[in-house]
Design a protein that fits this description.
Layout: H1 4-24, H2 33-43, H3 55-76, H4 82-107, H5 117-134, H6 139-162, E1 165-166, E2 171-172, H7 188-202
Antiparallel strand pairs: 1-2
Helix pairs in contact: 1-2, 1-6, 2-6, 3-4, 5-6, 5-7
Length: 213
């Protein structure tokens, strides 16, 4: 499979081209291009969060830990003294960064459900939901954000499949077919849970197609 630097550069390049094309079509403003390139790049790294020693996994849980700590501060800053808030926030950070990360590593398998189209749909819907309800963006902006996450995700899966082809010896490696799939047949319960998560998110995201004006 492709390494971290390859996934990063290819996802960033492909997202840059896609963002410029989206701007040319009049769907986004010029100043929005960096945001969508960023999302596409993140999407291009997400499939490897199920790899125990991957950069994306560490980046994700470090960012998530920081976010949870920040939300803890906002939630308790008016109810407790500063020292107590600091303890709460630090505890929340450490809880997510270590035991929850350890549990996530334990229950996930590399090239399992996160290397599937079910995962593409899940992260697309999740991004739409976050943008629309937390950032309060328009339906169009939320959906485009989701599409760029999904676009980067698909780029990653396809790149891994390309690396599963040995062109010099004209043969397919054993890993061929494990990166790009609709669902994980090897782990049906994980696929079912991902499908349920997609269906649940679909109930709360804005309708599609969105208006382009």
């Amino acid at each position: 499979m492709a390494n971290f630097k390859t996934h990063l550069s290819v996802a960033a390049g492909a997202s840059g081209v896609a963002a410029i094309a989206t701007h040319v079509q009049g769907l986004i403003n010029l100043l929005d291009i960096p945001w969508f390139v960023f999302l596409g790049t993140i999407g291009g790294l997400l499939p490897d969060i199920d790899s125990n020693n991957s950069h994306p996994l560490r980046m994700l849980f470090t960012s998530l830990s920081g976010l949870i700590a920040a939300l803890t501060i906002l939630a308790y800053k008016d109810s407790y003294i500063l020292q107590h808030v600091f303890i709460f926030a630090s505890s929340a950070f450490l809880m997510v960064r270590y035991p929850i990360l350890a549990i996530f590593k334990k229950i996930t398998v590399h090239r399992g459900i996160f290397h599937s189209l079910f995962a593409v749909v899940f992260f697309t819907f999740l991004t739409v939901y976050i943008n629309h309800f937390f950032f309060q963006t328009s339906d169009k902006f939320a959906w485009l954000s989701g599409f760029f996450i999904g676009f980067g995700f698909v780029v990653h899966l396809l790149l891994d499949e390309v690396y599963s082809v040995d062109l010099s010896n004209a043969r397919l490696k054993k890993s061929f077919g494990t990166a790009f799939k609709v669902m994980s047949l090897k782990y049906p319960w994980a696929s079912l849970m991902m499908l349920i998560a997609c269906a649940s998110l679909f109930q709360y995201i804005p309708s599609f197609p969105f208006h382009t004006v």
